[in-house]
Every structure is written in structure tokens, then in C-alpha cells.
Design goal:
The chain has about 150 residues and is mainly alpha-helical. It has five helices and two strands; from the N terminus they run ααααββα. Helix 3 packs across helix 4 and helix 4 packs antiparallel against helix 5.
Length: about 150
């Protein structure tokens, strides 16, 4: 699938190539164009899924396809950097979003017991990506309705 800026991606293919070339990330730059585009779209999907309703301000247009731009915030450089970071994490992976499952807090085999933490969030989160996005996330104690993210 081709990249359509602000429809299925926050970045262009050329922006990703330039970013990874400047950093010597040949794992990305050596891929075929279709694979590069697929990684960029999947990285955007990850941000859209994991951070839905967690960004400050409202979307600029209620009919826009992506979470950015937002009122008073265009697509920040840090969001683009999160996409570049996620493209590398996606190489050789189908998705960064794993099926949610209960976190084991205790396990029993014979005399060993398994207990599950029913309230745990099992979706994969990446500290480097969270750090890049944190200035744009709703902070704890905010009066804005929706999910709250602790930074």
C-alpha cells in the first residue's frame, strides 16, 4: 500500500529514507520500497492504536484520518521521530501490537500456582517512543476526559 501523507502516515517515504540514511540504518534503507512503506504505515498504526484518546487538545478536523494535527499542534517532529524509531522495531515483525493477555503474577506447576493480574495492560509499549510522545500526552490529573497517561 502506498503512503498517503496525513491519511495513513505522518511521514513521507523520503523523510524516512533521509532519516535512516543519516544514521546509517541500512536495515531500513536496504529494504525494497514496498517494504519500507509498509513499515511506515504499520508504525503509524501503532501510534494511532496505542495512543488513541491520550493526546492533548482535540484533532484539528473531526474528519481527519490520523490523530495529528491537533488544535494548536501540527504534526510534531517528535511524532515523526517516533515513527522512524518504530520502523526499525518493525523489521522482521508483522506488528508491534500483541494480543492483550492477562499478566501472570503467580504460576503453579504441581505445587506451583499461577495467578493472573486482571488489571494489567499487556499491550507492548516502548520507553523510547513514550519519551518522544510524552510532551503531547494528557498528564495525570488533567481535567480532560479520556485515558490518562503517566509520564
Amino acid at each position: 500500500m502506498a503512503i498517503i501523507l496525513n491519511e495513513n502516515s505522518y511521514i513521507t517515504l523520503q523523510e524516512a529514507i533521509d532519516y535512516h540514511t543519516a544514521r546509517g540504518n541500512t536495515a531500513f534503507t536496504d529494504l525494497a520500497t514496498a517494504e519500507q512503506e509498509s513499515l511506515i504505515i504499520k508504525a503509524t498504526d501503532y501510534i494511532e492504536t496505542m495512543y488513541y484518546n491520550q493526546f492533548i487538545n482535540e484533532p484539528l478536523d473531526e474528519n481527519q484520518s490520523l490523530l495529528f494535527p491537533r488544535v494548536d499542534i501540527l504534526t510534531p517532529k517528535r511524532v515523526k521521530e517516533a515513527i522512524y524509531t518504530l520502523t526499525i522495531k518493525l523489521i522482521d515483525r508483522e506488528s508491534l501490537i500483541e494480543d492483550a493477555d492477562k499478566r501472570i503474577i503467580e504460576d503453579t506447576i504441581a505445587v506451583i500456582t499461577t495467578k493472573y493480574d486482571l488489571s494489567s495492560n499487556q499491550l507492548t509499549q516502548y520507553v523510547d517512543v513514550m519519551n518522544l510522545l510524552s510532551p503531547y500526552l494528557i498528564k495525570e490529573g488533567s481535567s480532560i476526559n479520556g485515558s490518562v497517561y503517566r509520564v
